[in-house]
Design goal:
The complex is a heterodimer.
Chain A (H helix, E strand, L loop, with lengths): L3 E7 L3 H14 L4 E6 L6 H7 L3 E4 L6 H14 L4 E4 L11 H9 L5 E5 L11 H16 L12 E4 H7 L11 H9 L4 E5 L7 H5 L2 H20 L13
Parallel strand pairs in A: 1-2, 1-4, 2-3, 5-7
Antiparallel strand pairs in A: 4-6, 5-6
Helix pairs in contact in A: 1-2, 3-6, 5-9, 7-9
Chain B lengths: L6 H10 L4 H23 L8 H16 L1 H11 L4 H53 L6
Helix pairs in contact in B: 2-3, 3-4, 4-5
The chains are: A alpha/beta, B mainly alpha.
Chain lengths: ~240, ~140
């Protein structure tokens, strides 16, 4: 094993996951690909298994954050040194993975976030979402974290981050700027690198309709608490089952 | 009603009103019924013993109120409320909010436990698949 794990949380993504996994294979990054099937009722697991990925299947739908965390726990059990994560809907370009992973491995940061707003490619966002992004950007800045893309799920991290993210505080639904702040509060370095992104479905799933109201409320609350919480206490995580 | 009564006089009339025996009997019956219902649910295994103290506490409080309505009157006077019934409603609402919050906390804890269990199940299953594949080759439906 290369010491690298790529975590791809997937919920009912049978239509798009195959292409994403092909893209990952084409990118040629030496890593173990783990697809966390978050209780899908379609053939997501089968598509992932056919592509040669390791499949972790939740018995029922737990949420995007919980799926990511299952991947982190798996990576910890496997002794991974670096973990990358990307979405299964084709929003993230696998060709950009290496830049994020290498930045972590070179020790430039503990957690590297791929940002679609740092000049690579032109990512279009609606007015409301832009407003939301600016809001969370501002809140993060107030808490001492300068970040241009607070909702990016395209990231790479080292083991120190995994050990924190495997704990119970990690949200089961939307781990965004709040968990970045938690990492920073634990003394970890969070940085951004420019990446290209395509329009995906996660954004519309998470930030559409009434959910967007809940999302803003939840993020305000969890960002506020994350900025005030003490560093996460060490926990006996990643027990080998 | 005499239109010359001041609010304070009106409040004094309310507070001085005698307790109807029916209200006392109703409170007594409610407390005993609640205790009986809790015991019945425990016997049917619909309610676990560890969740009974709070409801037995409510039954005991109701019993106490039915026996000592003067305590409610004293509390009504002390808080500036007009009638004992409004005081009882207020206490009931406070109790309901408190119990909802308590169950939300319990639910949050159970949520984390369920999530951890489901994750552990997924990790174990992947490990089992790997062990089985190593021992017997890939499954036939793969």
């Amino acid at each position: 094993m290369s010491g690298r794990v790529l975590v791809i949380p997937a919920y009912e993504e049978e239509a798009r996951l195959g292409a994403v996994l092909e893209g990952v294979a084409r990118a040629g990054l030496d890593c173990e690909v783990v697809v966390v099937d978050d209780g899908s009722r379609d053939a997501t697991s089968a598509v992932a298994a056919r592509a040669g990925a390791c499949v972790l299947r939740h018995p029922f739908n737990l949420g995007y954050g919980a799926a990511l965390q299952t991947g982190y726990k798996y990576a910890l059990l496997r002794g991974a040194r670096t973990v990358a994560q990307m979405d299964a809907d084709g929003q993230h370009d696998p060709a950009e993975l290496a830049a994020l992973v290498l930045a972590v491995e070179r020790g430039e940061a503990d957690l590297v976030v791929g940002s679609r707003f740092l000049g690579r490619g032109a990512y279009r966002m609606g007015a409301l979402r832009t407003l939301g992004r600016r809001l969370f950007q501002g809140i993060a800045r107030l808490a001492g974290l300068a970040i241009s893309d607070p909702t990016s799920g395209f990231q790479a991290m080292n083991r120190r981050v995994l050990e924190i993210y495997a704990r119970d505080f990690f949200p089961t639904d939307y781990p965004d700027v709040d968990v970045l702040l938690a990492a920073q509060r634990n003394g970890l370095r969070v940085e951004e690198r420019p990446v290209r992104m395509h329009e995906g479905s996660r954004a519309s799933t998470l930030h559409g309709g009434l959910r967007s109201v809940y999302y803003v409320y939840k993020m305000l609350l969890s960002t506020w608490t994350a900025a005030r919480r003490r560093a996460e206490a060490p926990a006996a995580e990643a027990r080998r089952p | 009603m005499n239109p010359t009564l001041t609010p304070e006089q009106l409040r004094a009339i309310f507070l001085a009103a005698s307790d109807p025996g029916a209200a006392r009997a109703l409170a007594l019956a409610s407390s005993l019924s609640l205790a009986a219902a809790v015991l019945w649910l425990v016997r049917r295994r619909s309610l676990r013993e560890e969740y009974t103290p709070i409801w037995m506490g409510v039954a005991a409080a109701l019993l106490l109120v039915s026996l000592r309505l003067d305590w409610i009157h004293a509390l009504t006077r002390a808080t500036g409320a007009w009638t004992s019934s409004s005081m009882i409603f207020f206490l009931g609402e406070v109790f309901l909010v408190a119990i909802c919050l308590n169950y939300a906390v319990r639910l949050s804890r159970a949520n984390v436990q369920i999530k951890n269990l489901a994750q552990e199940q997924a990790l174990l299953r992947a490990r089992l698949d790997r062990v089985e594949t190593a021992a017997h080759g890939p499954p036939l439906d793969a």
